[in-house]
Write a structure and sequence with these properties.
Blueprint lengths: L7 E6 L4 H15 L3 E6 L24 H16 L3 E4 L28 H15 L3 E4 L9 H17 L16 E8 H14 L4 E2 L8 E2 L6 E4 L4 H10 L5 E2 L5 E3 L4 E4 L3 E8 L15 E2 L8 E2 H5 L1
Parallel strand pairs: 1-2, 1-4, 2-3, 4-5, 5-7, 6-11
Antiparallel strand pairs: 5-12, 8-12, 9-10, 10-11, 13-14
Helix pairs in contact: 1-2, 1-6, 2-6, 3-4
The structure holds zinc ion.
Length: 309
């Protein structure tokens, strides 16, 4: 018998707002259930566009104060989700937003895209060995949709999973910890196709996004896990609305748009692909911790089957 506080979930994201869009309902649900939810965000999103005209002066080409502003937005979003353990990789501002692929920001020293993967992963290993999460959530190898910071977040998270489990790697950061399950954020193609059709019909935006604009879209069969967070729909919508420089949430919360003003469905069932570790007994899983023995000792959570060997 284990208490729910034995469940520890780590999410690794590129910019403030990615966590609420991808995992807001998941984070709210696990936090409400008493699990320990840790968010590591790799940059402050300094290079983002700004939606509200009154805040346009924050952008990198004007005041360049968007990063500090977005720390405030993230703080408000995490309050809406009930998540208290929020960190920036290496501290706030350690890695700068790289901008979209091909822009000159990608070459700027200090941008996350130019960071040494092992060096950045070492900073994440420190968090992993401290928090000892059984589950890690990040993006696929394309970063979901090709943004350099999202690709780099994938690389850093993936490397940190390896290094954290290696007892020979920097023992000063704490005992080795093997993360039992690693997931990538996904959206099933049928779900986004249906959702975008509904957006076209009902959402108050001038246009509608294409499936290609939505990160992590895959064929339905690739998805292993569907997390029903519909009870936390209001919290997810509030968290997304807190990122007001980046997101416009439609009244009622069913739809949203980014700075391109193209509507998308605000999904409250969130989808994942298990890429490392053993799935729970039933597919699709409805719980990221499915199949785990949460009584596992340091060194990593094991499945019940593994512990029986
Ligand atoms: Zn992002």
């Amino acid at each position: 018998m284990t208490s729910t506080s034995d469940r520890r979930l780590l999410l690794v994201h590129a910019h403030p707002d990615d966590e609420s869009i991808n995992n807001g309902a998941t984070m709210a649900r696990y936090a409400a259930e008493g699990a320990h939810v840790t968010l590591v965000t790799c940059t402050l999103g300094e290079g983002g566009e700004v939606i509200p005209a009154g805040l346009a002066h924050l952008t990198a080409d004007r005041d360049d104060t968007l990063g500090a502003h977005r720390i405030g937005e993230l703080t408000e979003a995490m309050a809406a989700l009930g998540v208290t353990d929020v960190r920036f990789l290496g501290g706030p501002g350690r890695y700068r937003d790289s901008g979209m692929m091909g822009v000159p920001d990608n070459d700027a020293p200090g941008c996350f895209w130019r960071a040494d993967v092992d060096e950045a992963a070492g900073r994440l290993v420190a968090v992993v060995r401290e928090v000892r999460p059984q589950v890690l959530v990040t993006y696929d190898e394309r970063g979901g949709y090709g943004h350099p910071d999202h690709i780099q977040a994938h690389r850093v998270a993936t490397r940190a999973v390896e290094l954290a489990a290696d007892p020979a790697y920097r023992p000063g950061l704490g005992p080795a910890w093997r993360i039992a399950k690693v997931y990538w954020n996904r959206v099933p193609r049928s779900v986004i196709t249906r959702g975008l059709a509904e957006t076209a019909e009902k959402a108050p935006f001038p246009g509608v996004a294409e499936p290609a604009d939505v990160p992590g879209v895959v064929d339905d069969g690739v998805v292993t896990t569907a997390l029903d967070g519909s009870a936390y729909a209001d919290r997810k919508a509030a968290a997304m609305a807190a990122h007001a420089t980046q997101i416009t949430v439609a009244p009622g919360g069913g739809f949203f748009a980014l700075s391109n003003h193209l509507g998308q469905p605000l999904l409250t069932t969130e989808y994942y692909q298990l890429v490392s570790g053993r799935a729970g007994p039933r597919l699709p899983e409805d719980d990221l911790f499915a199949g785990l023995d949460l009584t596992a000792a340091p060194g990593g959570a094991a499945t019940s089957e593994e512990r029986a060997r």
